[in-house]
Amino acid sequence: MTRKDWTRGISALWVVAIAACGGGGDAGGAGGAESAGGEDAAAGGDAAPAAAAPAVDPAVAATIAGGVEFAGVHPAMTEIDMSEEPVCLDKYNQGPPTTENAVGMDGRLANVFVYVKEGVSGEYPTPSEPVLLNQEACRYLPHVQGLQVGQTLLIKNSDAVLHNINTQPTANRGFNISQPQAGMESRREFSRPEVMIPVKCDVHGWMSSYVGVVSHPYFSVSDMDGSFSIGSLPPGTYTVEAWHELYGTLSQEVTVGEGETASITFGYSADMANADVPMEEPLVIRHAHAGEHETAVVAGAGR
Amino acid sequence: MASSRVPILLASGLLAVSAFPGAPRAATAQDVQRGKAVYDRWCVECHGAEGRGDGSAADRMLPRPRDFVQARYQVRTTASGELPTDDDLRRLLEAGMPGTAMPAWPNLGQAEREDVIAYIKTFSPFFEDAPPAAMDFGSDPGGGDATLESGREAYRRLECWKCHGDSGRGNGQSAPTLEDWRNLPIRAADLTEPWAFNGGMGVHAVHTRLLTGLDGTPMPAYSDALESEVVTAEELWHLARFVDAMGPGGEPEVSELIAAARSDGDLPGSPDDPVWDAVRPSYVPLVGQVIEAPRQFSPTVDGAWVRAMHDGEELAVLVEWNDPSESPDAGWDEWQAKIAPVLYADGAPVASEAPMPDGLAIQFPPAVPDGMERPYLLMGDARNPVYLWHWDSEGGVTEMRARGLGELEPLDGGWVDGAAAWDDGRWRLMIRRPLSTGDPAVLTFEEGVAIPLGIFAWDGSSAEDAIRGSISSWYFVYLEEPKSAGVYLIPLLAAALTGVLGFAVAARAQRRAEGSLEEAAQTA
What we know:
Distance between the termini of chain B: 73 Å
Strand content of chain A: 35-45%
Order of helices and strands of chain A: HHEEHEEEEEEEEEEEEEEEEEE
Number of helices of chain A: 3
Order of helices and strands of chain B: HHHHHHHHHHEEEEEHEEEEEEEEEH
Shape of chain A: globular
Oligomer: heterodimer
Structural class of chain A: mainly beta
Largest sheet of chain A: 5 strands, mixed
Shape of chain B: globular
Helix content of chain B: 25-40%
Structural class of chain B: alpha+beta
Radius of gyration of chain B: 28 Å
Strand order of the largest sheet of chain A: 7-13-12-9-10
């Protein structure tokens, strides 16, 4: 699947809005990850010591923080023709909305999903707080976010028009539901880790969002200034991956000691625009009893 | 919320078997091996050796064959995001998927079907999760046509028209942008042609699709709208009935003969002339032209409704067909750009990337043939050409001669006169021509004989032109002869005679009945 089709991003207007909202609806922000990691992980440790992740003593908890840099010039934004949907268009009072996926301040890249890919073990309890995916002015808010396996994704229509929410995971089951009325809410969970799940609205082809599903709370999304932070980690060595819908993935290993904050930087550049952006694909192994054909095994199940 | 998404916990052993006597035993390795043999023989060409929907025939199809690894199944009785039940898969093998390349499989015995289902499920590990359960669809509250207005209102309020169009012809404002999960272009269903519904036609089938959605396509499930009481269960049934009523009530009958009634009054002057309302349309199915390259396996136009009448001097023909785009149609430029590389990967280039017109041609033999002799269906050949009325949305109607597919040469007779109008996803094209012209290059229409007729259609917004488009087989148009006075008199006499006889029979029966009553009274 080409990522080009998923590359319609978020206008500067809305990125600013997200940045302003911070960790409000978006639990993928640093704040959400920290609180979930700290409190819930500790509670989980008490409840099920055998399988649960080790409780992290706040006194020794570590942080991985850093920035996503961008070399080159962000692509020019183009206007979205929203004339067919005046209900949405009327919500933009500073000119028509623009489509852009690669945004950020000069030299920085926003909407990069950053998560600990390797180094975390044990099971983390599912946060009870849902994560909001809002449809507002015929855009998804936020454009990129993360949540934990089993955590509720609360999908809300804030527009007085029909939206459909067409999720297109591969490791999870993809659903496609309609929300024909403002204020309508739906709830869904994903049962397996998957980075990333595209979300689209077929009624409004420009609407696009990505949801990262991780088995633990150690993830974040870069802000307009490229910054991200993953806190409440047990000290250790981790592989941290950055994912961007247009520029692909970058990965690095980092070791962080007790109470320390490790600083890392991911460097994207404009010439990575045609990168083959990896999406979760089912792994293929020999199937035991079919014998001759290969069959898929859900990726990420052991992560 | 989401009760319908909770799998029914009847997965294990005896309970499931006793609750559903028809439920199968678990598939064994032998079943799977036998299923593989069936699959490799019948399914692999389209669905591919590894079940990824990428068999050798797959790249001509739209939509593409199912990818059993991703396991996004359109036609299910389960909630959106769920796998199909085994019964769902059985129904697909029994009924096929209308409107797609997936046929029914009556040649497979029940055991073979069970085996191939067992095998297909091994392609996706999702089938190792708890088995899915059918949703609760409730029951049709009935109400008949009285509910159509409520259904129409639901169609408007739930914004079905955004994709399907006001009249349901797959021409809504979002239709040109629709893509399936592979990011391939996909057409919004033409709701006026329910016989091509992937999940089958009828109120129940439509209602099921509304609640389950068609996973892998843009069609969402309205399950959450129902649970949120944005729409009531009753309204959803009304909507299903309204959608069902958009079609002609079943698959149209196909008759080889198109009767051109003889009119004593004026022939229709335009495609919208109410005179046409009195003429019964004949349905002519069209299929993609797949004999000669460049081929079209997934054409836009899959049928046309034809009416004809004459007045002894002139023949008038009205052809109506559904095409969501009024090509050249700027709203469908994006669609045109996307569809060519997806469908026409067989090497033959698209003639033009510029917007193209729609087109329709009606072919005849150059002279009324003796007996059943007809030119070669694909626009004749070198020895036996055809005579065509060729219309396109930019150039109007011209007469042509063809000596093979696409081998067109214009005729300068100028005998035809045509007019076309596109409205809400439907073309109406009227063509008139004198029966006899004295021009030996063109057909003379004779009354009282069956004259072969065939149809070609092109959708410019799907980059169809020249020989890439849809074709019909040969049909016949029959110009009725003038009626003699006897034609009118005989039915009247017959009616009168029937009336007299009927009266006599009734009177005798009445006398007998009275007689029996008298006898009964005397006996008492």
